[in-house]
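Late entry, evening session. Most of the bench is empty. Finally got around to the prediction I had been postponing all week. Sequence below, unchanged from the version circulated by S.P.
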Amino acid sequence: MPATPLAQPPATAPRPRSAAPRRLMTAAAAALVVAAMPVTLAHAAPSASVSPTTVAPGGRVALNVEGCGTKVARVTSTAFNEVRLTPGNLEATNLFGNATVFSNASPGAHRVTFECGGPGGQSVTVSLQVTPGAARGGTGGSIGSMSTTEVAIGGTLAAAALVGGVWVLRRRAAA
């Protein structure tokens, strides 16, 4: 039987290329440039924080500034002595330190000024609220007063645990 030639599809004219993919790529590139702009601008100015933002006289606060572009910064306030910040990483993008609020600091809002590179450098100011009263020691103010009922329940649970422990140990020793 003779071989039959394979049927070939009819020849078609090439379709003209659409401009849509090119427009889509241009729009995506423009969106990327616009999206990257705020990130670039955000690193242009330093940002600072004080934690906690509310503290009693004699309390400690953590100081942090990012985006200085220097390896040194100083912090000044009427609430505490001048503090020099040190780098938190090798790139020195994060500078940090601690300060103790004066025990006689007046209640109210105090300005905390961060200066990158020292006096005359870029600066940013945040607020620290000093509350009336002294800093609590011991438990750090994490617990308040307890009622008689709470003390009685706690004592009962502790006594029951002690009796149960002694009973288990005596049973093991007898066996």
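Two things to note before I forget:
Confidence is low (pLDDT under 50) at residues 36-43.
Strands lie at 47-51, 54-55, 60-66, 73-77, 83-87, 94-100, 108-116, 123-130.
Will write this up properly tomorrow.
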